[in-house]
Specification:
Order of helices and strands: EEHHHHHEEHEEEHHH
Structural class: alpha+beta
Shape: elongated
Strand order of the largest sheet: 6-5-7
Largest sheet: 3 strands, antiparallel
Number of strands: 7
């Protein structure tokens, strides 16, 4: 797990793994689509032009989805909405806005949309594989707890680098997504279930119910609800506690490597769609098979 791929020296600009993988996926998908265009005797120029539009639309859509899902935070810090260099992109949002941009672009250029959809279908799966690698490095889109031999664990704490005043390097910590999920009750999906992971008492600040209502440790817990220990924010933990978490003293339960499953699936579908391209019966046939196969394997 490596949400921050590297930091540019002197200015300490953090390069996030997810965004970097999205760019690599875009370039790989673009090259594959141009190759397919030339092989089919189509003009590859629209692919390059549309690619730039799709990249911009994809980043904007991915950012908007992230902001929407974390509006409780951005409502209090609206300036952070535009701080995309701090991380925060969601793949699905990028796909939706890029798809809308694609339809508008090809219709305005009066190009055969379904023909180019067939050309782009394998490329979309290749780009998806890179996107899921970004998920794996970022720790998001994780799997359920399991005891299979190939189960994996993620570290409890992410270390992030930010530029402070005067371009000084600042190190910040946050719970990793899988660890935080196991540490707190899932109030959206399974409000009746408690947390999967339990820490020593000094890591908690109070109690929380299935609706997110928090009471301090010194307050009396109201009766009639399921109450769970509320872990402290990582900013409120002591250096000793953060050190213990970073050293793996309180590990999470092993989980399915769902991101790696998704990568293998996307690469397999990319190969299949490339293979069946020569057998397509009408324009849009390969793209239709992409939707069917991805929906089924997903």
């Amino acid at each position: 797990m490596r949400p921050e791929l590297f930091s540019i020296p002197f200015i300490h600009l953090s390069i996030k793994s997810y965004g970097f993988m999205m760019v690599l996926g875009f370039l790989a998908a673009l090259l594959l689509a141009r190759w397919r265009c030339k092989k089919q005797g189509e003009n590859p120029a629209p692919i390059a032009d549309f690619g730039l539009i799709a990249l911009l639309a994809g980043v904007i859509g991915a950012r908007l989805f992230h902001v929407f899902h974390n509006w409780s935070y951005y409502r209090d810090y609206p300036r952070e909405i535009f701080a995309i260099w701090s991380g925060g992109l969601e793949f699905l949002g990028g796909v939706i806005l890029a798809a809308a941009a694609m339809v508008i672009y090809f219709r305005r250029k009066k190009l055969p949309l379904r023909t180019y959809l067939d050309i782009l279908a394998p490329s979309l799966m290749l780009g998806l594989a890179f996107g899921r690698m970004g998920c794996f490095l970022n720790g998001c889109c994780f799997g359920a707890p399991t005891t299979v031999p190939w189960a994996i664990t993620f570290p409890a704490v992410n270390t992030m680098t930010h530029s402070g005043s005067g371009c000084a390097k600042e190190t910040q910590y946050q719970y990793s997504y899988p660890y935080e999920y196991q540490l707190t009750p899932d109030r959206c999906r399974h409000p009746e279930n408690g947390p999967l992971l339990e820490l020593p008492p000094d890591y908690y600040e109070g109690y929380i119910d299935s609706e997110g209502y928090l009471v301090d440790s010194d307050q009396a817990v109201p009766p009639g609800k399921n109450w769970y220990r509320a872990p402290k924010r990582i900013l409120d933990l002591s250096r000793r506690q953060i050190g213990e978490l970073r050293q793996g003293k309180h590990p999470m339960h092993p989980i399915h490597p769902a991101q790696l499953y998704a990568i293998a699936n996307a690469l397999l579908l990319c190969l299949i769609l490339n293979g069946i391209y020569r057998f397509r019966k009408f324009d849009g046939w390969v793209f239709a098979w992409m939707l069917i196969l991805y929906g089924f394997t997903r």
